[in-house]
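Our working data are protein records whose layout never changes between entries. Instead of coordinates, the fold is spelled out as a row of discrete tokens. Here is such a record, shown just as it appears in the course material:
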Amino acid sequence: QGFDMNIVPFSSGCGVELSNQQLADLTDADLVELRTIFDEHGLVVVRDQQFEPEQHLQFARRFGDIVLNKFFKPVDGYPDIAEVRKEKSQKTNIGGGWHTDHSYDDVPAMGSILVARKLPETGGDTHFANLSAAYQGLSKGLQTTLESLRAVHSNTHLYGENGYYKTTDLADQLGGMDRVGDAVHPVVIVHPDSGRKVLYVNPGHTIRFEGWSREESLPLLEYLYAHVDQPQYTCQFDWKPGSVVLWDNRSTWHYAQNDYQGQSRLMHRITLAGAALSGV
């Protein structure tokens, strides 16, 4: 039974599921195939993994170069693995709205490998959206207009001195508040590996179109966000012990549901370095 026999769609328009494989045991040939699937679909979900931090790290290094998140605390003994933690007493969670990791960097991350370590009894699902499919769902006229635009992405409103997280009960577990800034990217990118066109704006970090005011930008941005957030482009992953998710940051959004108040949740995330993004 070949590696590709274990790949099935996770949902109709969003991601694939890999089964009957241990990520830690993949051969080099398997990994090449997995990378092709990852580039094509943008989201790979896997269950029932024996994946200790050392294996998480080794697998990530085989998949790509690791980039450190500026704001998350690392796992003890593993500086390349970030903790995504919410304690029982905390009300706010990290990544609780649609976003794309690191789009505020000049060279955004390629993707992430997220591993479940401690889960609430119920809740805490992660939602994903397929930005390649969403782009294809736009009219030709709007596609052409968007291809001529660039957008400003920022993290200052989240992590800056007067940013959102400063006002929450997560403030003391996030660092790097002095390392905020903006980046500009094409609104429609050509995916560096698959060659597909992708809508590259997101509610978490995109603040306006280049050369436009915030007020001028919002109606079109809001339209695009509502367009992406439809059942045909989105899916929801129900974490269980041993679950691992790989997502492509260039072609997906994600957000973590914050519906488990009074319970704790701990995930381990490794972020993979990407390449500069090019427009059409």
Q: What stands out?
A: The chain is about 20% helix and 30% strand.
